[in-house]
Design a protein that fits this description.
124 residues, alpha+beta, six-stranded antiparallel sheet, 25% strand, globular
């Protein structure tokens, strides 16, 4: 009886791993086609939610590349001048893919996924 339970658990885990593999192979690098106000708003919302802050994005973000890189603001002094020294913070990257017909923005830090509504994209 114990052996059957262990075998069932092992098969379940293998099945889950297989599902994850299928999802990853469905992702195709993509870029946004025909950007408009709705698609820019969807991208802006997804990035803002991922970073838990408001971020300024260019109107042509992800229209010629599948990678979006966000650099942190350089801290300023009380006089408003940039602080001295190097900013050693790593930039944050997002990757745009087509997955199952949807445009999906993937946060490279934790692989979290956000579907971009009202957005058309094309595989690279």
């Amino acid at each position: 009886m114990k052996l059957k339970t262990i075998a069932a658990v092992i098969l379940f885990v293998i099945g889950l791993a297989g599902c994850q593999t299928l999802v990853a192979t469905d992702d195709l690098p993509a870029w946004i086609t025909n950007p408009d106000g709705a698609s820019r708003a969807a991208l802006q919302t997804a990035v803002n939610e991922a970073l838990n802050t408001d971020v300024a994005l260019a109107d042509d973000a992800l229209t010629d590349s599948s990678i979006l890189t966000i650099e942190r603001n350089i801290p300023g002094s009380l006089e408003g001048q940039p602080a001295q020294g190097r900013n050693m913070d790593m930039p944050i990257q997002f990757r745009l893919v087509i997955s199952g017909g949807d445009c999906v923005l993937i946060d490279q830090r934790d692989e979290s996924r956000r579907v971009l509504e009202n957005t058309s994209c094309k595989a690279r």
